[in-house]
User: Fold this.
Amino acid sequence: MYSRAYKLAVAIPPLLWVTLFLLVPYALLLSYSFWTVSSGTIMRQWNLENYRDLGRNWMYLQVLFRSMKIAGAVTMLALVLGYPLAYYLSFHAGARKDLLYQLVIVPLWVSYLVRGYAWKTILGSDGVLNGFLQYLHLVREPVGFFLYSPFAVVLVLTHIYTPFTLLPIYASLEHIPRHLVEASQDLGASPRVTFWRVIFPLSLPGLLAGATFAFVLTLGDFLAPLLVGGASGIMISNIVVSLFGAAFDWPLGAAISVCIMLLVLGMLFAVERTEKKWTFT
Amino acid sequence: MDLHVSGQSSVRRRFGWLATYAAGVFAFLYLPIVVLILYSFNREGVGGFPPRHLTLDWYRMLASDGAILDAVVNSLLVALAAVAIALALGLPAALALDRVAFPGKALFRRLVLLPLILPGIITGLSLLMLAVFAGMKLSLLTVIIGHGTALISVGTTEISAGLQKMDRAQEEASLDLGASYWRTFWRVTLPNLRLPLVAAGLLIFTLSMDEIAVSFFLIGRDNTLPLEIWGRLRRGLTPEINAVSTIIFLASVGLILVWYRLRTRS
Assistant:
C-alpha cells in the first residue's frame, strides 16, 4: 500500500546514519584490534599480535576474571533485592501498587553520576557512615576500607542496577494469569508451593532478562571503579581507558574492547535462545 | 491482587515479612539520595554526622559558578540536539521497520539497539576512532553525534510501540480519499504519534543530560554538566556538588513523572 518513494524516504536516512555512525565505528574498532602501535604511531599492518598479548599476559585475564566476579556479585545482589520487591509490588501491594511502582522507576532514571557521588560521600573515611558510627561511639577511628575497594564498587553498582533488574521481573510477574494462581490455591497448594511451582517458573524469562541487564551493564563499567574502586577495584574497562589514554596503545585497547563485545553479544545470544525455550505464556 | 487463601494469619505473618523486606529495599534505593540532598544544606561539608548549621550558601555559590552554568548550557544544547537527531531518525526507522521490507532489516533492528545493550565505553571508543579517522576535532558536535546515535534506539522503540497501537484504517482512509502520502503523514500519521513522540523526546532528553560514558571519550574543550562534575570529583568533594546533584535529581524526577504520565495515557 506504500509507494516506492515513501519506502525509500523512510528507510534511507536512518540506514545511512546508522551505517556511518554505528556500523563503520564498530568495524573500525575491530580493524584497530588487528593493527599495532610502534613508537607512537598506529601501524596499519594486519596481525594477531594484540590477541596473543592478551592470552600471554596473566594480568589482563586476572582483571577480566575480577570484572566477571564483580558483575556476578552485582547480579546476584540485584536479584536478591529486586525479585522480592517486584513480587511484593505485583501480588501484595494492593491499592498502593501504582505509587510504589513509580517510586521504583524514579531512581532508575536518576543520574548515574549523582548516585555514585552520593555513595562516595557516604563511604569516605570522613564520610557520613563513619561520622554516624563515631557519633554512636561504635568506632573510635574512621574505618578506611568502606571506600576504594571492590566492595564499594559492588555496592554502588548494585544500587544503580537493582531497579533495572526489577523492571523485567515485574513485567513478567504482571503477565502471569491470575487464574493459574487461584487454581493452584483451589487445588490445595500452600502459598509456598504455589510460589515455587507456579509463580516462580513463569517469572523466569523476566528474571533472566533482569539478570542479563545487570551482568552486562556491570561488566563493561569503568566509572564506578574510578569513582569508588581504588586500585583493588579496577575492572577490565579501566584497562581499556588507560590504554586509550596515557599508555597510548589503541590497538591493544581495541582488542580488549572486541573481547568484551564478543562476551556480551555471546551472552545475549545464549539468553535469547534460553528465553525462547522458557516462554510458556 | 491479594491472595485469598486458607490460614489468613500465617499468610499475613509471611507477607508482613515481605512488606518489611520491600520497605528495606526502598530504603536502600533512596537512602543515598536522601543523604545527598540533606548534606547539600550542611555548612560543615559533605561528611560527618549529624549534619548541622543548615545553610543555603552552597546553592548561592552554585548560582555564581561560571563553569557550572556554562556546563549546564552545554548540556542543554547537547540534549536538545540529541532529541532532534534521535527523533528525526527514530521516527523514519520505526516506520521503515513497520512497513518496508529491505535487505538487512533484521541486522538493522539489532544494530540500532546495540548502544543501549553494549557498555557505553564500546560505543564511545568506536565513535572516537571514527572522529580520529575522519580528522574531526572533538567538540560538543562529536558529543551530540554520539548521544543522538546512541539514543535513536529509544526513539525507535517508543514510536514502534505507538505504531502498534495506531488505528491503521485512518491512514488507509486518508490515502483512499486521495490524500498524498506526504499529506497523510502530516495530517494522520504524525498527529496519531504525538504522545509517543513527546514521551520519547523527554526520555532521550533526560538520558542525554545524564550521559557520561560516551561523552567521556568524545568531549572536547567544553564540558557537559556530568563531565564538569566528574572533573571536580577528582579535586575534592564540596556540598556545592551536592547542591547541583540535588537540582539534577529534582529535574530528572520531574521529567520522568511527566514521561510516565504520558506513557500510561497513550
